[in-house]
Design goal:
With 578 residues, the chain is mainly beta. Helices cover 6% and strands 51% of the residues.
Length: 578
Amino acid sequence: MKKALSVFLMAAMAFGAFADEPVADVNVAEFSGNAKVEWGVDLDSGTTGFQNSTDVTLKLNLLNGGSKSTTGDGVWGELVIKTDGDTFVGWNNTAKKESANKGMTGALNLGVKVDTAKIHFGPAYVGIKSGDTQTGKLKMDGAIRSADSDNATTLGAVGPDGYSQGIVAGYDSDMFKLDLDLRSKPTTKAPAERVVAYILDKDGKVATGTPLQVGDVIHYYDGSKYTVTAKDVEAGKTATVGLLSNLGGATPNAYYYTDNYAFALEGEFKGVENLSVKAGVSYNFAKNHQANKKDGDKTSNGDLWHTLGYSASAGYKLALNDTFFVRPQLGFAGATGFGTYDGYEGNSTTMNMAAGVLFGWGDIGQDKNAGVYFLDKDDAKKVTPGVALVAEIPLPSTMSGEDNDGKKGKITTTGTTLAWIQPSLYTGEIIPGLTAAAYADIQIAQKGKTKTTYDGKTLPETETAKPDAAMAFAFGVKYALNVEEMTITPQFGLRFVNEEYAKANRKKTVFDGTNYKLGDNSGDDYLNVKLGVDVAGLVDNTTFSVVWTSENLNNKTDAANTNDPKFGTLNFGAKIAL
């Protein structure tokens, strides 16, 4: 704690010199705690026992929120240094830490950062912070966003990745916003970390897949070279256009002079209230240096495979009355790669769509969970009072190109998933005392198909069998009954995951595939139930509870009777909270 306070004193001296900017402002932001005891019974073994838990949280604000910025007119440089309201020292102490004699542990969160760095030319500007050259990332608005995939990213970003160093030029008005990123991609000097390398054969062409020989020179695309040793040959390494690891070199460090660039152009129309329309495109390019007599050993750090990313999305919030609204959304993201690999010139394309509609009656994207069994804590991180349906739709992928003999071919592949749909519900406070929430992730399956043309001929179409649909859902409900001075809140929750979903490993936090390991003394499908009641107000600051939590109720009895259905635990508790 002395160390944390010394850091605070230094921050106080630094910010105390400011006038209207953030200054040292120590206050208690949060001081809370609880102690709980439960007595429970394992309904399968019949054994019983007590469990105690405590949790104390203390947060001290160090700085008030605010910012310091430059000002100007016409052509001027804008720099904004900002600190948010989460600039604090925080401690948390639980019974587990107490038992280990660790006491309070501190975490220093000085949320001070460069928020904006721009050179303004009227409504136009040039930004000089690092960024990226991808487009298309989309989070659909549903009644519940599960805490998966970067908080429910329905469409992932597309386009060239890793291009972080550079500038963004933009124009921002009341009608539209336009941003053009121009960035380069750093690499490292260590051979073990380089992504692209090559070795020339006797004809001066790139040789791949051939065994390395002692004395062969590997050319790396940052201009350096490595001579193959006998130890490398003994390890059976082969020449390849790709990663060649463990071939010497220094500790990896940033290398910025790569002649490898990419751009991303994104636009947004802002002229109609409650309407969101966005589009973007991105592409990478590099100087094509080659090792020849003209430029000697000069080589390129550019990616052999160029990626064109493109995206578009639209959404509109239509008010039905003062309470209810409808918000439809549609999104699209695709990427096409171009290049030459192992003598084959071609391209590949993958595309995905997203569609959804939200019928709501509250603020969109509230930063909290649903507060019911299986959709509480971190299982759901964004909620909107309403009911919604979101669909992720993968489109057929294609590969086409021309081989060394000049023959052209094209392969179109349709996967076994027509769509993933996520219906969701969150009641909010539309019915006093009642909170209900539901979230599902369901695969709409289909037969997979592959169509191939080669050298002007269409080959017979092949099919992949339609799989059993993968599905998972969670539902929770509670109702607070006021009886004189008491509040009695019965609760019920149910969660189901089938075998196909566990195999698909969708990595949804609500249905995390790692929690459903097949063949681990469990049934193929997973069904969990939780039933309980809380009673508050009978004793001041105290909540009494009874909770039954099942194990997998769908376990299937095997011949050795080692896989019987399990009924879980029953716990009686009392919690005193400040």
